[in-house]
Structure formats: C-alpha cells, structure tokens
Amino acid sequence: MAQRRPVIAGNWKMFKTVAETRTFLDALIPQVRDVDHCDVVVAPPFTGLAAAVEKAAGSRVSVSAQNVHWEKEGAFTGEVSVGMLKDAGCTHVIIGHSERRQYFGETDETVEKRTKAALAGGLKPIVCVGELLAERDAGQASDVVRRQVQKCLGRLTESDLSLIIIAYEPVWAIGTGRTATPEVAAEMHAEIRKIIREIFGDAAAGAIRILYGGSVKPDNISALMKKDDIDGALVCGASLDAKSFAAIIKYL
Ligand code: PEP
Known about the structure:
Elements: E1 7-11, H1 18-31, E2 39-43, H2 49-56, E3 61-65, H3 82-88, E4 92-95, H4 98-103, H5 108-121, E5 124-129, H6 133-137, H7 141-153, H8 158-161, E6 165-168, H9 182-200, H10 202-207, E7 209-213, H11 221-225, E8 232-235, H12 242-249
Parallel strand pairs: 1-2, 1-8, 2-3, 3-4, 4-5, 5-6, 6-7, 7-8
Helix pairs in contact: 1-2, 1-12, 5-7, 7-9
The chain binds phosphoenolpyruvate (PEP).
C-alpha cells in the first residue's frame, strides 16, 4: 500500500487580524515542534499571509492562501496572483472551496484555471470538491464529486497531479457540527481515488493525498484518520484556536 504523508490544514476563512495571526502562531508552533507524522498548513486571509510566513519560518508549519487568480497581473480588482502569493512566501493555495463556489461564482472551469496557474507558478493546490445536502439526499453525491474531479483535475498531467492535494468537503458538514461519519467520508474518499485511478492510473491514485473537511474536531479526528483513504483534514472552526488545532495535529 502507498505510504502517503498525512496533512492537517487549517482554513481560517475571513477570521484573524495580523496581530491575531502572530499570536496564534506563537502559541501553535511550540506545541507542534516535535510533530513528525504529518504536514501542517495554515491558510490565513491574504492580509495575514506575510506575518504568518515570518512567524512560521524555520518551523514545521507551511502557509497557504485561500484563493488565487489565473492571470499573472492585470485589471482584476480584488484578485491576487500566483506570483504575489509566492512573493509573500506561500507554498500552498486552497482552490474551489465550497464557499467560493456557492457565493462567489466559482465553477469547475475556474477551479481548473486557478489550479493550472498555481502549478505553473510553483504553488501546491489544495483543490476542494464536495456535494450539497440536496445532492446527497437525491443520491447524486458520487456523480457530483465525479464531475468535479474530472473537470477540475482530469486534464492535468500525472506530474501535475503529484503536487495536488484534494480536499473532500461535503457541504452539509461544513461549519454545521454534522461531521460525515468516518464510514461515509471513507466511502467518498475511495470513490475519488477510484476516479483518479481511472484517469491517471494506479501510481497516481496510490500517491494522491485526499483530505476530509467538515466539522473536524479534536474528538473525531482519530476515527477519521484510521480510515485507509483519509489522508488528513482541512479544518476551519477547530483550527482557529491554537490548542484545538494542535490537538487535531496530534491525532495519533
Ligand atoms: C471548511 O470550511 O473548509 C471547513 C471544513 O469548516 P469546518 O471545519 O468549520 O466545518
């Protein structure tokens, strides 16, 4: 079985000022100094990125943005380019979060464009997929996720794919306190790995890391991480407090 290094990532959404970013990392970094079993990523808002990079220097914590535009520069008010994020010291970028899809017109097509631009510029994309509650209730969850994976990632090369992390985030579980059971999550992770296998083959499917996101907390992370196809977590609510995020990171 492929050995995939787990990833625990915190998506801060629109939370934390620059000062709060510094305070958080001052509290987190000593708690995770000896953590060797997983990669740790934090994704502050754009304004906190430079401070996070400065604080995380020399630690095990990597810094991610929450979005990126596909053009290098230009008249795109409110957008930020790959070069700007690299310049700020980011290594990762979250792309296609369900809130971007639901409230800001993100589509599978724009997710693909952002992903390609991130890869071309040397950022590691964390690409989010996941079905709405109505889609799950209608028995369409697998079809929706299959479409998202195919359209967002299906035209990449195998070498592109090796730099990608997928986050499966059922929208009904985000910020609701309603975590998917480890069984439900694992079933979709296996399905995503199957889709990747169909497109890219066994090696790519065995290597790609698939994170679960949706109401992950210190008390449910261990059960999720025991599932073979779950390679980590993308966490918001419980990642905003350094003690609780550290507890999730130390899920072993
Ligand atoms: C998220 O928005 O990516 C998320 C997983 O949120 P929460 O952990 O708060 O459910």
